[in-house]
Each structure stands twice: as structure tokens, then as C-alpha cells.
């Protein structure tokens, strides 16, 4: 399934800036960054639950925000892109 993970971490304190870096590193391990705080993740249900647990352990629920969006359209209709960025098709052929 395609999950869009978004977050907004308060960076007013040094602890907040550390949380932001940790949250970004967790997301980078499972998805690709499409904007500064937005990641596309092609993962299964078990990976999604692990990602959610890991991110919830990092953020401060009193200061930060974390949202997940499940994209359920058929694969060819999920993402419409404009501009220079093109996401990686992880299911397509691998060209080296």
C-alpha cells in the first residue's frame, strides 16, 4: 500500500531540532522524501504499524504533529506529478 507520512515537529528548542532529525531518519529508512516533511512509503501493513510505533516514540504529542494518508486508488491513478521531481517506481524494472 502507498502511505503518505507527514510531520510537523516544533524546532523552537534544541530537543525539538533533535526530534526533527530523528523523525526524518526514521522516514528515510522506509520511504522517499517528496517534500521537506512529506514521505511516500510503499509498505505492507506490518511495516506501516512498525513505522507508526517508531514515529510515535520520537515525537512529542504536546508539541508536534504526525499524519498518515493511505492512498487506495489503483496504482496507475495514485499519484499525479508535475514539475521536475519524479518519484521512483519501486515496482518497475531496475536500471543500473
Walk me through this protein's architecture.
This protein has 96 residues and is an alpha+beta fold. The chain has a single domain (2-74), classed as Alpha-Beta Plaits (2-Layer Sandwich), CATH 3.30.70. Helices cover 32% and strands 24% of the residues. The protein contains 2 helices and 4 strands; from the N terminus they run βαββαβ. It has helices at 14-30, 45-58; strands at residues 2-8, 32-35, 38-42, 65-71. It has a 4-stranded antiparallel sheet, covered by helices on one side. β2 (32-35) and β3 form a beta hairpin. The chain is globular, with a radius of gyration of 14 Å. The relative contact order is 0.25. This is CRISPR-associated endoribonuclease Cas2. Keywords: Antiviral defense, Endonuclease, Hydrolase, Magnesium, Metal-binding, Nuclease. Pfam families: CRISPR_Cas2. One of its GO terms (molecular function) is metal ion binding. Homodimer, forms a heterotetramer with a Cas1 homodimer.
Task: Draw up the topology in text.
Layout (H helix, E strand, L loop, with lengths): L1 E7 L5 H17 L1 E4 L2 E5 L2 H14 L6 E7 L25
Antiparallel strand pairs: 1-3, 1-4, 2-3
Helix pairs in contact: 1-2
How many strands appear in the DSSP assignment?
4
Report the principal-axis shape: globular
**Can you count the helices?**
2
Structural class comes to alpha+beta
Uncertain residue segments: none
Task: Estimate the helix proportion, in percent.
Answer: 25-40%
Query: Could you say what the CATH architecture is?
Result: 2-Layer Sandwich
Query: Residue-averaged pLDDT, rounded?
Result: 86
Rg of Cα set: 14 Å
Can you tell me the number of structural domains? 1
CATH class: Alpha Beta
The SSE order reads EHEEHE
> Can you tell me the CATH topology?
Alpha-Beta Plaits
Beta-strand content: 15-25%
- Termini, distance in Å? 26 Å
Major beta sheet summary: 4 strands, antiparallel
Strand order, main sheet: write it out: 2-3-1-4
Family: Belongs to the CRISPR-associated endoribonuclease Cas2 protein family.
Binding site for Mg(2+): 8
EC number: 3.1.-.-
Subunit structure: Homodimer, forms a heterotetramer with a Cas1 homodimer.
